[in-house]
Design a protein that fits this description.
With about 350 residues, this protein is of the alpha+beta class. It has 2 domains: about 290 residues, CorA soluble domain-like (Beta Polymerase, domain 2); about 60 residues, Up-down Bundle (Methane Monooxygenase Hydroxylase, Chain G, domain 1), CATH 1.20.58. It has 11 helices and 9 strands. The strands form 2 sheets. The chain has a 7-stranded mixed β-sheet with strand order 2-1-3-9-8-5-4, sandwiched between helices. It has a two-stranded antiparallel sheet with strand order 6-7.
């Protein structure tokens, strides 16, 4: 298997499945509910229970939190959940309609965060219409005793993340803020993987542009990469300020003890942003180099056309002179006049052709 395909398969495996339906327990609140789990002291409650019952248990005991996961809920399906957990109407509207910029907003004692997970689209060969980056959305409502995750799109599966957190009860026992950090960390780590895969595609295009088999169709592939890189940048760049707020300000329920964790995520995001910026600059350079090569090729074609036009002009001129209907013209009645003129034209064309070849025009 070629190195490019190995890299793409590795990225695909790391990013995980497209749709998270790994947990069989489904809540009766609606078909959009993937799962509803109660955690106490970082340990998952073994019995499945509806969101209302789970939230009642948590608030009655004062321990643990509820993690409710949903996938593309409708307005009607989400209305009951919003009322049960006391979610702000503006955040509810954003969660249902989707297509939001990455952000973190605070509503009293609740945080509402929007992330745009990205996935690398595997392809055998990059073309002018290849899709390189796909994006989804994850909305996270984080309260003192609950976490509600709402996913839109095929990317951003949280099943493996949930299992990883359940394998670390000490971290999960820190509360809903630990889940918020884990989601942000997974999204940003996937950004790094996608950036590396896109960088590989850029290297392939760059090599093709400067190879002997470079074609004028490479401009379409470069432009498509720039479009996909722009989509990737729209998902990554707006997240820097929200992560900076989480890393520098104690926003309840993410207290000061989580600032170092979010600071680490912000550093990873800064690396991704720098890599995207360098990739964009490199694509600009590759595109300019390709256009320069096309211009040089066109100039060479024009020189060749001009050289052949100059060669053909000589016999055209001679034939034009002897095509005039004058009675008194030199060599008209000479026996060897016709072959002499042909030889003269051939000699002149040969001399001019040799001069153009010597100067690199042909």
């Amino acid at each position: 298997m070629p190195i490019a395909r190995k890299l793409r398969h590795a990225v695909r495996r790391t990013l995980g499945p497209r749709v998270d339906l790994s947990h069989p327990a489904r809540s009766p609140l609606g078909s959009s509910v993937v799962n509803c789990v109660l955690y106490e002291d970082g340990v998952r409650h073994p019995a499945a229970c509806p969101a209302r019952e789970a939230l009642h248990r948590v608030r009655r005991s004062g321990r643990g939190f509820v993690w409710l996961g949903l996938h593309e809920p409708s307005t009607d399906e989400f209305a009951g959940i919003a009322e049960l957990f006391g979610l702000h109407p503006l955040a509810v509207e954003d969660a249902v309609t989707a297509h939001q910029r990455p952000k973190v907003e605070r509503y009293e004692e609740m945080l509402f965060a929007v992330f745009k997970p990205c996935g690398y689209v595997e392809h055998e060969q990059l073309t002018a219409t290849s899709e390189v980056v796909e994006t989804g959305e994850i909305m996270v409502f984080t309260g003192t005793d609950f976490v509600i995750t709402v996913r839109h799109g095929r990317h951003g599966s949280l099943g493996p993340l949930r299992e990883a957190l359940e394998a670390d009860p000490d971290q999960l026992a820190k509360g809903p803020a630990a889940v918020l950090h884990a989601i942000a960390d997974q999204v940003v780590d996937n950004y790094l993987l996608v950036a590396e895969a896109v960088q590989h595609d850029i290297d392939v295009v760059e090599t093709a542009v400067f190879s002997a088999e470079a074609g004028r169709g490479d401009a379409g592939r470069i432009y498509q990469l720039k479009r996909e890189l722009l989509e990737f940048k729209r998902a990554v760049a707006p997240l820097s300020r929200p992560l900076e707020h989480l890393a520098t300000r104690p926003l309840a329920p993410a207290g000061p003890e989580f600032q170092p964790y979010f600071r680490d995520v912000a550093e990873h995001l800064a690396r991704t942003t720098e890599q995207i910026t360098s990739c964009d600059a490199l694509l600009d350079s590759v595109l300019q180099a390709h256009l320069a090569q096309v211009t040089v090729a066109q100039n060479e074609d024009m020189r060749k056309i001009t050289a052949w036009a100059a060669i053909i002009a000589v016999p055209t001129m001679v034939c034009g002179v002897y095509g005039m209907n004058f009675e008194h013209m030199p060599e008209l009645r000479w026996t060897y006049g016709y072959p002499f003129v042909l030889g003269l034209m051939a000699t002149a064309c040969f001399v001019i052709h040799r001069g153009f070849r010597r100067n690199g025009w042909l």
